[in-house]
Design goal:
heterodimer, A: 2 domains, 4 strands, B: mainly alpha, two-stranded antiparallel ribbon
Amino acid sequence: MIGWWRRAGPVAVAAMVLAPAFGDPAVDGYPLSSYPMFSTDRPVRADLVTVVGVTGAGEAVRLSPELIAGADEPILAAATVAGAVRADQSDRLCAEVADRVRAAGPDVAEAVVRTEHVDVVAHVADGAGPLAVTVHARCPVTPPP
Amino acid sequence: MTGFRLRPQPGGTGAGHGFRLRSRPAGVVDEPYLRRLGLIRVLVAGYATAWTAVRAPHLLDHLDFDGRRFDPVGVLAPLSGPPAGIAVVAGVAATVAFGAAATLGWRYRVTGPALAVSFLAVTTYRSSWGQIFHTENLAALHLAVLAVAPADRHWALRRALLPRHPRRSEPERSAVRSGDDGRWAVRALAVATVAGYVVAGVAKLRNGGAAWLDGEVLVNQVAFDNARKDVLGDVMSPLAGFFVEHRWLARPAVLASMAVELGAPLALLGRRAAGVWSLAAWGFHLAILVLMAIVFPYHLLGLALVPLLPLEDWTSRLRPIGPVSAGRSPFGDPVG
């Protein structure tokens, strides 16, 4: 039993971990993964979805991943907003974010779910702002008087 | 004596019923792979325990998520909706409890598999909300191998049995009977590490193609990831701007990453190769941290690499008796 186990163990592990490399590269899993992160060719001009706050003075401010998605992972926040936009549920997400912002207390009058069309290289290198913005939903944060 | 001892106990026996932390139980052939497995168990199970405890608030945050966001993967894929909150709380608590016990090697035949299953469930749950994370895959796989490995022969806390008339415990007798020196398990752990890097390298070539090799994909990846962090209110890497402005850095970075990922199997050739590759792989993750502010804790702490390294030699001064290990590679004869 142990002899068989000794021989098969490393081979079985290798086969399992390597298997996703022979499958559809777009399909990922856990814990056996095709490890697609960092591998796709991202466009320089990218559409980045997010939720921002708008102050009473009309200034857009960044919200944290916790306020956007209820958890501290930015990549989860990105997936959450993208999923809501894709499923045409931006209004619902906006209301959820507004509730979290209201509870957290920052000086924000409105939450806005939006896609920012960004030159990511210029943004990172020079802090360039979005080239264009598409608003999917907006909702009040400050409770009505 | 009853209580805990951090020093290994010569001969593996003691007086009185109690607990002892031993590096080499009585009656077990002194094999370097069993010692390495014991140390790997302490490190990997300890990591899983600490990770789950530290991330518990984040994991429990998921209980407030809209159930429509639930997109189960892996072992949770059959679920049609998120598990009940009480099950999540119990899973997190059980992972910490089993993890603490498995780290100590206590009742490892039970707590080792239980930790592997519960950690897999908890981390799968984390990845079942629309975003699959890639930071804990290897820890989950290592725990699965350790769960069925003789990883409790050393550095394990267990009840002393019949100390006045030293006898081997059942796991010890089993080890002697089976002659299982743990080498297969160390090999399997090392293969899991190496194969994961190969898959990641293959993915870059399959998804990015030739563009990946000329560095453009990497520059855009670094820029995209940091810009996305920024618009989501997270912190960008302070060096990302420098990197994308000095594009010539991308080509050597790509070649280095390809060498680490596709060259990973070279680490299985021997002790020196394993050491060199492990250092390179650690540097690879350090570069990801510096350029993309992405933390792979299991890898940065070196835990992904420990199956390849002669841990048993580094801790040999804690072992007052028995032969000194020859510093072996699990894949070949003693080297170095």
